[in-house]
Amino acid sequence: MGLGQKIKAKRKELRMPQEELAALSGVSERTLRDFERGKLSISLQKALDIAEVLGLELKLVEA
Asked: Three-class SS string for the chain?
């Protein structure tokens, strides 16, 4: 499962519409929609902003 899919799953778990998450995280609805569908890559900062709104923490780990 990719990051976009995980973001979508958490958003749905919280019953938060895409419009609300987009507004609270400062990204466009289209960007969020395409990211969740795996059609778009976003910057690390945007991913962090979205994760923060959802109460998630992104971590970088060595492989």
From this structure: CCHHHHHHHHHHHCCCCHHHHHHHHCCCHHHHHHHHCCCCCCCHHHHHHHHHHHCCCCCCCCC
Q: What is the pTM of this model?
A: 0.88
In this structure, what CATH number is given to the domain that contains residue 40? Answer: 1.10.260.40
Q: Is 63 within the bounds of a domain?
A: no
Instruction: Answer yes or no: is pLDDT of 44 > 90.
Output: yes
* Alpha-carbon span 11 to 63, nearest angstrom: 27
* Structural domain contains residue 25: yes
